[in-house]
Amino acid sequence: MTTITVPPSPLSPDEDANKLRKAFQGLGTDEKTVIEILSHRSAGQRLAIAKAYAHLYGESLLERLHSELSGDFRKAVMLWTMDPAERDAKLANKALKRKGDRDLWVIIEVACASSPDHLVAVRKAYCSLYSSSMEEEVAQSFSTVHPLSKLLVRLLTSYRYSGDHVDSELAKYEAAQLSDAVKSNQIGRDDVIRILSSRNKSQLKETFKYYNENYGKHIVEGKHQCKTPRPKWMAAKTTLSPTRGQIGSDGSGKKAPADIEVIDKSQFTTLLKTAIWCLASPENHFAEVVRTSVVGLGTDEDSLTRAIVTRAEIDLEKIKEEYKIRYKTTLRADVIGDTSGDYKRFLLALVGSEGP
Amino acid sequence: MTTITVPPSPLSPDEDANKLRKAFQGLGTDEKTVIEILSHRSAGQRLAIAKAYAHLYGESLLERLHSELSGDFRKAVMLWTMDPAERDAKLANKALKRKGDRDLWVIIEVACASSPDHLVAVRKAYCSLYSSSMEEEVAQSFSTVHPLSKLLVRLLTSYRYSGDHVDSELAKYEAAQLSDAVKSNQIGRDDVIRILSSRNKSQLKETFKYYNENYGKHIVEGKHQCKTPRPKWMAAKTTLSPTRGQIGSDGSGKKAPADIEVIDKSQFTTLLKTAIWCLASPENHFAEVVRTSVVGLGTDEDSLTRAIVTRAEIDLEKIKEEYKIRYKTTLRADVIGDTSGDYKRFLLALVGSEGP
């Protein structure tokens, strides 16, 4: 459910490109026009405008936006104007370079909160942009971090069946497998990763439903009541499987770590939780991303921009509903409170109005 | 390099469909016309004919071929007429049901001897046809067979960079990793699977080249001189990594094997070899598939058909060259010796002539 509003009879791509060109010319940039046009056009229309702009004026719209705008406003407008697959490939690449905890969220979002076709398009774009595959970089970057590498690679390389077919018996069986992994303190076990990385999303929702019904009560996240409860097993006391030393040194003579690293348990649990949310109820995850980016001192503009730009045409309406329930305030109000200027105006145009 | 010959001015799809329709009508089928048309049309032309046929006569060309033809000829013509991605999805599904040694070859061929885009198309087709993903079925079918499951899933889910960029330092480093895995008798090690399943094909060829140059002499396969020598490490004494018991029982209460199975070492080595050949020199692998299908008593028509039908428009010309060098006879001569009737005529039309 998109939150942007497209005029019933928008201008043609050529007309839009022309208005943008005029907004760039002269002293200073007419940011108001840039926002007015780009924030009210769908992904397809934005691509058509970029194409028309390049054709008419012999320069790249993205490059011109880069030279005309600045700061967080520029970042947001550029991410919004890019081809969505290319945008996500770039976000993933940046995250892979930084490798912080929050950066891993980005990788998991791309892997789990995308449609199978979009995920493939992102992987193609990644190969074109960086002359290497996304899984190759992930596998190499985290090759000694067990079982994180396996989890990320399997999630990123999935092409899930996207129909609604659900096998209830299988869901019961696999809910039991998940329960066993939790009880045995082996949450990084191969079968857990296999289930999360290969089953279709409807099937997984059924599995989590059985889990909640049969292996404990719903988990309420923190003080806030989730609309879609986080599967209970995510909050159980969990540790990784006892795999330390399984792989051994790589023996290459170039760089031979004495042993593999084992990722911090709570960090792995958080990432697995992120994956489950992105798979079963991405609106929960993205509500948390936005909230985390605005609470406390300072704002994490990169995360705020990413959540709004990447979800505006997918499920931002649901994220806003979830936000209201969980945080007793509106996403729009939090954006107003934490941003300013053109950046604020642009994000608010994407966020749209809040319902009654 | 395709081996089929397409007339410089072929009939239109409507005209071809009409000729096929006439070949089906009356008493008996005019197989000669079926062969004459279909074996001399490219994949795109065949799809256009099938579309025109359905449009003109309100029935599926594939279904009509199924009811008009029979035996190995029917199987071959149908595989040839199908959309290539759908064809490979069907071959993989059949192989997954049977799970014999030779069936695993089929999975590896699809995973390693396809272009990245074709592999994705096969995975999409698989989801549409079977309401589950290919990796889901592979992961489930072989979940207790370690490390085969990991190898197959990682190969099948790859989307490799398909450019020519090669990093020589990386090739040296990874050749050393492979050598270490062989020396430590741990050929099923995670780093071996990571390298084979994520690196681009040009990079892998460079890695195997370094391996051959630095860790031993070339291996000559059996009595026959390979044009592209099999990487030496494939013939070294190798065993799997000592992973027995790593995963433990699945603890589901439904079916809880006491321990995981460990695939027979020589079987795993053969499969890894198949993967390496399909990645670095598929013509070697398919020459072997054809040869194995015709030598000895009886013919393995399914394998013979698969090799010729799936490679005719890709690299059958190279396979024929390789065949001549390795087996001191021609592929065409072996097809003539082991097949008969319309089946023979059809395969020979796809195989084309042998050079001087």
UniProtKB/TrEMBL annotation, chains A, B:
Biological process (GO), any one: response to heat
Cellular component terms per the entry's GO annotation: cytoplasm; plasma membrane
One Pfam family in the UniProt entry: Annexin
GO-annotated molecular function: calcium ion binding; calcium-dependent phospholipid binding; phosphatidylserine binding
Lineage top rank: taxon: Eukaryota
Gene3D superfamilies with a match to the protein in the record: Annexin (1.10.220.10)
Record keywords, A-Z: Annexin, Calcium, Calcium/phospholipid-binding, Metal-binding, Repeat
SMART domains reported for this sequence: ANX (SM00335)
PROSITE patterns tied to this protein: ANNEXIN_1 (PS00223), ANNEXIN_2 (PS51897)
InterPro entries: Annexin (IPR001464), Annexin_repeat (IPR018502), Annexin_repeat_CS (IPR018252), Annexin_sf (IPR037104)
Domains: entry comment: A pair of annexin repeats may form one binding site for calcium and phospholipid.
Family membership noted in the UniProt record: Belongs to the annexin family.
Protein's name according to its UniProt entry: Annexin
Organism: Zingiber officinale
